[in-house]
């Protein structure tokens, strides 16, 4: 790999041991990928504040400073040697983490670990990591511009960054984002390279796709077919708002690992179908009609059998304020069925907005809760005794049965809220 003078200097240790380790990691990583060089990045989204449970003992024995340094060295720099964490060199945000200690009464999470994470927030906050604590950094202020090179983790954020914003990132990991935050560098490879970003598959949508559920179903079907390739979607698509593209991308990246898509006339690198493909010819044309829509629905509901629902999970990816408002409107003045829990997940900054707008009170008066920082799939925390879950998120429906061994119903927001009132799943496909 060709290195610039500043990269060589970092590799030689001119900026200290942690930066040296970070540059060494990036060179090894870039060479394994076949990248010929690194590229500057000023926008990193990673995960540093959720210490592994083993670190609780280390922190108790050797103190927070040592425990955090050891955690970062091992988890974010792939280093056996414990190095001191310096300040981030470039704009760095914490993605999703565990729930905060304020949620402790709601689940069986380890209170000591939740408290430790709060201390980790302060440790890394003091080193310039912005604790957004969400899988949707683009909803709370991190909105890179078209062409900007980023180093982001989290599949639903990566596909949004590439496709909707036209910024450039691969799906990075704990280590590469840790190293990027200390160096401002990432391998120039994959989605950083313009030619790599052209479409591979043409998707012809033959049924109207308008509401949230339909965008989720379409994403889930397309992801399963194209896997990690780049679909270009045409046909009966209504003009999507941000939250629909958020759901579509999260679904496609769950069922297939899609990291980029184009919708001609909507996404910034596809003014036309021709521009979306560039000099490439589609390797296949995929039809999405009634039968395909039903297949996606049945796949998403394949684990569900019992109609009695214990837990309604909304907010995957984390809800926008508009989504919280939509849920609050349906809950207003009513009470949840006894024994049915409702959690709505949203970034903490949007939670503040929901508090001020009165939506949190409406949700809580109905018996539900608004939670921030995490979600059941990441935290592995749910209301006690949950066996059957309902959600409006294709991504959560994809992962939660495998992670938590629960049955899962997928449907519209209305299906979910109705189930919260009756304790029974009555949703279905029209
Ligand atoms: Fe976010 Fe958790 Fe869904 S990280 S995208 S709410 S699985």
This entry's quaternary arrangement is single chain
Strand content: 5-15%
Structure class: alpha/beta
Number of H- or I-type helical stretches: 17
Number of strands: 14
The residue ranges in which pLDDT falls below 50 over 5 or more consecutive positions are: none
Mean pLDDT: 97
Largest sheet: 5 strands, parallel
Largest sheet, order of strands side by side?
12-11-10-13-14
**Hetero groups bound?**
FE3-S4 cluster
* Mass-distribution shape: globular
Distance between the termini: 55 Å
What is the CA-based Rg, rounded? 22 Å
Helix content: 40-55%
Describe this structure in words.
The mean pLDDT is 97. The chain is an alpha/beta fold and 430 residues long. It has helices at 5-11, 17-33, 54-62, 64-77, 111-125, 155-163, 174-183, 212-226, 242-255, 273-277, 290-300, 321-331, 348-357, 359-365, 376-379, 394-404, 413-422, and strands spanning 38-40, 43-46, 91-94, 129-130, 151-152, 185-187, 201-209, 231-237, 284-288, 311-314, 341-345, 369-371, 388-391, 407-410. The protein is built from 17 helices and 14 strands. The N and C termini lie far apart (55 Å). 42% of the residues lie in helices and 14% in strands. It binds FE3-S4 cluster. The site of FE3-S4 cluster has 14 residues, from helix 15 and helix 16. FE3-S4 cluster binds at residues 96, 135, 156, 250, 316-318, 345, 375, 377-378, 395-396, 399.
